[in-house]
Amino acid sequence: MPDDKRLINSLRPIDQKRIDNLVKLQTDPMDNRDVWFTHSVFAQCFLPYRDPKTPHWIKRNGKYSVILTAGIIDHPSLIDPGRVMGLPYGSKPRLFQNYYCTLAIRHQSPVIPVERSMTAMIKELQIKATGGREGTIKPFKEQIMRYAASHFRIAGPDGTHINAEPFRIFKVWFPENPDQKSLWPEEIILSDDFFYSLKHHAIPFNFEALIPIKNNARAQDIYLWMTQRLCRIPYNKPLLMNWKMLFEQFAGGQHSIKAFCQAFNRGLLAARSCYPDARIEEHREGWLFYNSPPPIRKTNIAVLPVKKSGN
Questions:
Q1: For position 23, what pLDDT does the model report?
Q2: Torsion angles phi and psi, residue 91, rounded to 5
Q3: Rounded to whole angstroms, how far apart are CA atoms 232 and 42?
Q4: What are phi and psi of 97, to 5 degrees?
Q5: Residues 6+ away with beta carbon under 8 Å from 261
Q6: Residue 197 belongs to what H/E stretch?
């Protein structure tokens, strides 16, 4: 018993949170509001982890690539016409991706009603909304502007390049006051092609499970990748992902394989704590992944009805 107490006292706060979350996942019934969605492409080809400081980002996955290009925005308040935005990176644009995909699936419409202010949306993502230079609102706003202004393309093995812009209409210029409603969009309109693709390739996941790793971009990627991949592995044939394959999938611009291995192992440990049914095993060449039940069973998925005016 004394050894157990010493072990508990030595846990980092983040480790204790993961343990508490694991217990909660295994004991509490799931609420429909915890079922969120992302596009299958976003669960396989990922955004940068750090600012690449370049106007282009290419993420290959097998024979296909996602090409992300920084965009330009304009507004009457700008002194010079046009402002070149950087590329989105880190955990915040990933959360935003999941947010708008979830609302589109729930409402079964490319026209997505959003919260009335950025502060409200950030709270919906279970992030403490704070202002000021060091607050959470300013960097979140910056990342959404970068994301909305970016251009997405998918390159196939035959040389075909497909425009894959998620938005048809989205206001990218936000007021300095994050609670001001006049310039914050009342709705986001997805492109028809993206919405049609999302409806057919949406991946459900447990958003409540994702909360402990909401600030860890690589752990988010590993978690979402496992949610759509482990359930498709043949039951009697585990998937071996060697370090070269893992590096290609999850390196995110990191050049040192040694540093990547350490970062990946930390990310996998964090993601595994949010997915208790995931069956994985360390291997001398990398990691073995076994057939595992998905975090969200099909019987747990229910599309919330859209409220009609006057009802």
A1: 45
A2: -80, -30
A3: 17
A4: -55, -50
A5: 243
A6: helix 192-200
Contact 167, 189 (CB under 8 A): yes
Question: Which residues are CB-contacts of 16 (< 8 A; sequence separation ≥ 6)?
Answer: none
Distance CA 272, CA 266 (A): 10
Angle, alpha carbons 189-193-199 (nearest 5°)? 85
Share of the chain above pLDDT 70, in %: 78
Q: Are 293 and 32 in contact (CB under 8 A)?
A: no
Tokens of 166: 């998620």
Buried b (16+ CB within 10 A) or exposed e, 84-109: ebbbbbbbbbbbbbbbbbbbbbbbee
Cβ contact 90:79 at 8 Å:
no
Q: What is the pLDDT of residues 175-208, one digit of tens each?
A: 555 554 444 556 789 999 999 999 999 999 999 9
CB 205 within 8 A of CB 227: yes
Which backbone phi and psi does 258 adopt, to 5 degrees?
A: -65, -45
Helix (H, G, I), strand (E, B) or coil at 144: helix
Q: Name beta bridge partners: 283.
A: 286
Report residue 10 as tokens. Answer: 């030595």
pTM of structure: 0.82
Tokens of 249: 């999938």
pLDDT digits (tens, 9 = 90+) for 238-265: 999 999 999 988 987 666 888 899 999 9
